[in-house]
Design goal:
This protein is an alpha/beta fold. The protein has helices at about 10-15, 35-40, 55-65, 80-95, 140-145, 165-185, 190-200, 205-220, 225, 230-245, 250-255; strands at about 1-5, 25-30, 45-50, 70, 80, 100-110, 110-120, 150-155. Strands 4-7-6-8-5 form a 5-stranded mixed sheet. Helix 1 (about 10-15) links the parallel strand 1 (about 1-5) and strand 2 (about 25-30).
Length: about 260
């Protein structure tokens, strides 16, 4: 885990992995509350990392200290219900050396949805996160030919209940993503996509359209990319923007 000022959430998440985790690694990125004290009370090994607007750098620091066979990465506002422990243990025993997508049940501002996310993978020094924000492990796993499976297990992500917290988070994400675009202009598809979603969350729809159009344009000229999942999802994202602008017929035409 990487955390900052999570004293209220830590008892829930750390309590939820008792009996599942053989080792708890917590990397603190600058807490000013009792986060460190609470983490240690649950037996966590606590390390410190100076925040540098790079979630992957912080995640990779946590990986550096892990000594067990598999990594399960969590956020401070996650919870792993006890009922899911046996499912995770079954996966690890039956599909050795694999990585696993877990179902993520998102409880956000009275809205509930389920997604999947790669949360478990072998602890290997050649597997690291990439991306300043919305950090990804998929590319590293694919490069190392690690098989990936979908688990039946579900994690609850409690998220932000205060709209002001959500806006603050989106503005932070926007700044980090713009910095990433500037630093890595040759490899920007995912950055463009997440920037679009962030801007849509901030209701900056015209700017969001500019960035998603860059992905769609790549699909128009690159036939292989046009078949990719990210291209299909980007078309859906563009259609959602058009609908928000009242341009329903244009959204249908796009599809």
């Amino acid at each position: 885990m990487i955390v900052k000022n999570e004293e209220e959430n830590l008892p829930r998440v750390l309590g939820s992995i008792q009996g599942l985790a053989d080792e708890i690694i917590v990397v603190d990125t600058g807490s000013t509350d009792r986060t460190v004290e609470v983490a240690k009370s649950f037996g966590a090994k606590v390390y410190f990392f100076e925040w540098c607007d790079d979630f992957s750098a912080a995640r990779n620091e946590s990986l550096r200290h892990a000594t067990c066979d598999y990594i399960l990465w969590l956020d401070g506002d996650d919870e792993v219900p006890k009922s899911e422990h046996i499912k995770i243990k079954k996966d690890l025993s039956e599909k050795k050396y694999g990585a696993f997508y877990l179902h993520i049940k998102n409880n956000l501002q009275n809205d509930e949805n389920i997604s999947i996310q790669l949360r478990i993978f072998p602890n290997r020094r050649d597997i690291k996160f990439s991306g300043r924000i919305h950090e990804q492990i998929y590319d590293a796993l694919r490069a190392m030919n690690v098989p990936m499976f979908l688990s039946d297990a579900t994690i609850i992500h409690h998220g932000y209940y205060d709209n002001l917290d959500t806006i603050k988070k989106l503005k932070r994400n926007k700044n980090i993503l713009l910095k990433e675009l500037e630093e890595h202009p040759a490899n920007i598809i995912y950055t463009l996509f997440f920037l679009t979603r962030t801007l849509r969350g901030l209701n900056e729809l015209n700017e969001a359209s500019i960035y998603i159009d860059k992905i769609i344009e790549k699909g128009r000229i690159d036939r292989e990319f046009a078949k990719s999942d990210i291209m299909k999802i980007s078309l859906t994202e563009k259609a959602a923007i058009l609908c928000s602008q009242g341009r329903i017929e244009d959204a249908i035409s796009l599809f």
